[in-house]
């Protein structure tokens, strides 16, 4: 094994021995002129650049030995050398014609590259000590405009001596072109297919002497597609084992510091970001809009409301009429739904006499409702009632004359109470309901307070006791409430009382029944109370039927007839004072249904709206009803009230509930 030359004699780069002048060449070697010719510059700027690499020293007689060329085996390569010599001799004239008279380092007019028709053949190394071998020209640097900008910390490190072949054996992580220590590129810069990399001969490490610093040649950082896949060629010559080497410095540097990002990479990265922001904004806006829409649609919809479209009240022109009030006692007249037409006399409570039986019937029916036309349950006459009967007859009270073991239905008991004013039946009803008269009287007083009868006090269920007192105004309130009970109106509308045991019929005490529209009432008389009378009459005014209720009390007469006569004059005058005025025709819009979100549907009157009253009276108008969310046109959904009058309402168009637009744009 030959010892390596000193550092001063070692060439700067690992060079390959090629035949000089074409005397001896590998079978696949290029002509010398083509090997040394640099690529033609692409523009004026690159054409003016100086030629890279030192020129070949032609005065030196000896060529330097190849660093990485293995010696050929003596027995195997003799035959191939003869064949190569013959082929190279034949190719010499062609090389001379192509090179012309130029020197090896001269620059040709056009760059010579591999033929497109014939791919370059792999280069075959020759012996380094061949005298015909000449030193190749250094490869030109690629154009500066095709090289990426290198970071300052990646610039080549100057070296005093070229590295040995052993130092170049570790493979880089990426198969890229590398630069030599002198700054020259070791591979041609051309997009065309480059020639295959030569295989250098292995030179063993010298046994003695310090190892020179291998320096650092940074890998090519530009990211360009590879033009050829790395070729794995077999090694010529004997195999030698290499000593373990420390990892190159560039390996640790790459682990500590990430590779630089080219400037154009940031440009490509910023462009998608700029395009991404409008998309993100649009997506967020769509999500917000979808959330708002869903929230508005899922919110509960307000209940529809029926609103009056007419004026809130109607006033009759003129002055209030004056009724024929009695000279003695007290009286009052009212119209159900309109209020009091007037009153006369003192407001001090006075004995009620049998008029108190109206409250007895009202309380019993409240505790024991009676269906229309039904007789109701039967009740047995109590022993106490039979025992009290002689004393009542002695006092001159009006009686049915109950007997022991007798049974009365609820309806017959009420008829005897209200039509013939039977005191014995009044006490029996109190015991049937509450067990004792005291408890029943307590119910009577409680009911009076609930009706607003502030000047009324009950001490017995029949009213015979003079301590049972009331006023005409309070009795109007009671009779108005009692006339709203169907069973009560059915009972007081009878002219005769017919006993259930087949006894003789007895006339009722209400002499005005059937006259002036009187449909019910109750009379009462005692020496202390005088004549009392309460009445109820129905009168049709225009299209409205009204209920007139009056009370006359404390009339000085030998019987209740005096009070009845006063009542007759009052009911006749009240009916004459009533009048009617129309405020809306059939089909007019009198109300509207509001959905609570800004939408409304007009509501029309099914019939003409008429207001009943008297001169100087102001009648309020209201709408009643709970309109549905949806209804057909013409379907009755409520009423408008004007005093005692009630008029049906129907929507002009179908009700469909709130529209989608109102549900989306609502603020409440």
TrEMBL record:
Biased segments, Basic and acidic residues type: 165-177, 224-242
Q: Peptidase S11 D-alanyl-D-alanine carboxypeptidase A N-terminal domain: which residues?
A: 345-546
| Compositionally skewed regions (Acidic residues) per UniProt | 40-67, 75-87, 107-121
- Report the domain of life of the source organism: Bacteria
Q: Does the keyword Hydrolase apply?
A: yes
Family, according to the entry, reads as follows: Belongs to the peptidase S11 family.
- What name goes with this protein? D-alanyl-D-alanine carboxypeptidase DacB
Organism, by scientific name, is: Actinomadura rubteroloni
- The primary gene name is dacB_2
């Amino acid at each position: 094994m030959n010892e390596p030359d000193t550092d001063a004699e070692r060439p700067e780069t690992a060079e390959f021995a090629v035949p000089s002048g074409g005397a001896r060449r590998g079978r696949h070697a290029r002509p010398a002129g083509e090997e040394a010719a640099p690529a033609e510059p692409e523009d004026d700027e690159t054409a003016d650049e100086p030629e890279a690499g030192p020129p070949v020293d032609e005065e030196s007689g000896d060529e330097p030995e190849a660093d990485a060329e293995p010696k050929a085996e003596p027995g195997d390569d003799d035959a191939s050398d003869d064949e190569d010599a013959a082929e190279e001799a034949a190719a010499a004239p062609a090389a001379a014609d192509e090179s012309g008279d130029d020197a090896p380092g001269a620059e040709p007019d056009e760059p010579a590259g591999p033929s497109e028709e014939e791919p370059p053949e792999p280069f075959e190394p020759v012996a380094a000590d061949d005298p015909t071998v000449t030193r190749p020209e250094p490869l030109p640097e690629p154009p500066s405009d095709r090289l990426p900008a290198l970071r300052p910390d990646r610039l080549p490190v100057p070296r005093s001596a070229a590295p040995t072949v052993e130092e170049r054996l570790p493979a880089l992580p990426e198969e890229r072109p590398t630069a030599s220590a002198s700054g020259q590129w070791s591979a041609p810069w051309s997009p065309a297919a480059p020639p295959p990399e030569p295989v250098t001969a292995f030179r063993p490490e010298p046994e003695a002497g310090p190892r020179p610093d291998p320096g650092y040649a940074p890998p090519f950082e530009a990211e360009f597609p590879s033009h050829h896949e790395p070729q794995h060629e077999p090694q010529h010559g004997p195999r030698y084992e290499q000593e373990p080497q420390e990892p190159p410095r560039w390996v640790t540097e790459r682990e500590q510091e990430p590779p630089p990002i080219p400037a154009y990479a940031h440009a490509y990265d910023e462009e998608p970001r700029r395009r991404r922001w409008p998309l993100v904004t649009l997506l967020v806006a769509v999500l917000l809009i979808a959330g708002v829409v869903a929230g508005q649609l899922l919110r509960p919809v307000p209940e529809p409301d029926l609103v009056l479209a007419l004026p809130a009240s109607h006033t009759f022109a003129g002055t209030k009429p004056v009724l024929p009030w009695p000279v003695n006692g007290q009286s009052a007249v009212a119209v159900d739904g309109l209020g009091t037409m007037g009153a006369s006399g003192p407001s001090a409570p006075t004995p009620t006499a049998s008029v108190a039986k109206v409250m007895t019937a009202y309380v019993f029916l409240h505790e024991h409702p009676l269906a229309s036309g039904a007789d109701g349950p039967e009740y047995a006459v109590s022993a106490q009632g039979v025992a009290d009967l002689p004393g009542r007859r002695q006092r001159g009270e009006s009686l049915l004359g109950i007997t022991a073991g007798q049974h009365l239905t609820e309806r017959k008991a009420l008829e005897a109470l209200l039509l013939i004013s039977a005191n014995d039946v009044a006490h029996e009803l109190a015991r049937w309901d509450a067990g004792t008269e005291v408890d029943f009287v307590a119910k009577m007083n409680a009911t009076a307070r609930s009706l607003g009868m502030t000047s009324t006090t009950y001490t017995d269920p029949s009213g015979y006791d003079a301590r049972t007192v009331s006023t005409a105004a309070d009795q109007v309130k009671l009779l108005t409430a009692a006339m709203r009970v169907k069973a009560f109106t059915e009972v007081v509308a009878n002219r005769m009382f017919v006993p259930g045991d087949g006894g003789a019929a007895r006339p009722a005490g209400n002499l005005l029944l059937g006259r002036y529209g009187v449909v019910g009432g109750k009379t009462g008389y005692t020496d202390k109370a005088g004549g009392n009378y309460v009445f109820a009459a129905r009168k049709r005014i225009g299209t409205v039927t009204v209920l007139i209720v009056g009370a006359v009390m404390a009339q000085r007469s030998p019987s209740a007839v005096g009070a009845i006569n006063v009542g007759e004059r009052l009911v006749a005058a009240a009916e004459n004072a009533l009048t009617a005025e129309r405020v809306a025709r059939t089909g007019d819009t009198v109300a509207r249904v509001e959905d609570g979100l800004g939408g409304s549907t007009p509501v029309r009157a099914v019939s003409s709206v008429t207001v009943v009253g008297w001169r100087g009276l102001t009648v309020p108008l209201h709408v009643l009803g709970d309109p549905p969310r949806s209804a057909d046109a013409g379907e009755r959904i409520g009423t408008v009230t004007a005093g005692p009058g009630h008029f049906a309402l129907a929507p002009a168009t179908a009700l469909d509930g709130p529209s989608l637009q109102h549900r989306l744009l609502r603020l409440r």
